[in-house]
Amino acid sequence: xxxxxxxxxxxxxxxxxxxxxxxxxxxxxxxxxxxxxxxxxxxxxxxxxxxxxxxxxxxxxxxxxxxxxxxxxxxxxxxxxxxxxxxxxxxxxxxxxxxxxxxxxxxxxxxxxxxxxxxxxxxxxxxxxxxxxxxxxxxxxxxxxxxxxxxxxxxxxxxxxxxxxxxxxxxxxxxxxxxxxxxxxxxxxxxxxxxxxxxxxxxxxxxxxxxxxxxxxxxxxxxxxxxxxxxxxxxxxxxxxxxxxxxxxxxxxxxxxxxxxxxxxxxxxxxxxxxxxxxxxxxxxxxxxxxxxxxxxxxxxxxxxxxxxxxxxxxxxxxxxxxxxxxxxxxxxxxxxxxxxxxxxxxxxxxxxxxxxxxxxxxxxxxxxxxxxxxxxxxxxxxxxxxxxxxxxxxxxxxxxxxxxxxxxxxxxxx
Length: 415
Description:
- This protein is 33% helix and 20% strand.
- The chain is an alpha/beta fold.
- Helix 2 (48-60) crosses helix 3 and helix 11 packs across helix 12.
- The protein is globular, with a radius of gyration of 21 Å.
């Protein structure tokens, strides 16, 4: 049972819900602020892994060549059906222990990290749980303890600039079409992933990450015209001199420039870091999960991928890193390691909390969501409260904003 010192890490209004997933067998644990600890064996839930994958696809409305992704699932299991089914399977058995706590801190496992628990519904409820509860995520109780310690330290840092943003990189020397999905030239096989893993973990080659991506025949990314609008809106929000705003876009949104800013100590002087770029999540080789910066005219040794394996070499002192336009690179292997690995890599670099997206979102909606979120931070709201309020605004705004595709992808790992 966790000791009392760790239990005090939980606010009185919060409960930690930790899951363990192995071959559709699920264990769950709850921890209250007063130290009460419970364990629950859900047993083996048939088809859970596939249902989680299908739910992720249903929520994101991902398409291939203009058609919905083919799902190995009966048509009647739409997002609404799965929302209730997964709520019944994953939350209902814990209702007695969590219903009176307005803040749920969820530590997911495996493919559970690929779904936003905010969208699940409890029996008899028409609204998703986000309508009543705040939800944030953490990799484990020990990481929660580390984040709480960092939060206390960062409160006494000398004055930092408010926002440093980098986005709208140049991925292609062409105009982006109205519908421009990112493309992979071929599907890597298991041997490719094994070689990529070996290159990353067993090689001292300074180009090992580049060679690993080449082994996987890396993705061709599309330009993000909406990301530039997002950066402009953030610029308008933090235009006052005291915010010490820095924005890098287009030809300046490169890995080489990020390395330069790091060497100069500039990255460590900002409270919020925003990357309005694509993001690559690699469940097969989590160390390759990355922020994707400019892919055109890079110098030798620069591939534009700032990977989870490389981020610990950076020096940050940020309260929050935001990845506002992630494109998940999910293969047939359904895992959440790539999702959970990036926030931890950022933590090792010195960051505290991470806001990322579980799928790509319409550029305009992303810009509006992020601007609304930062407006609340600027007004003094905490990060979790600001995120919850922004999601509820989207839900209450009506269609198309209320569609989970536009608000549920944003998940916060942190305190």
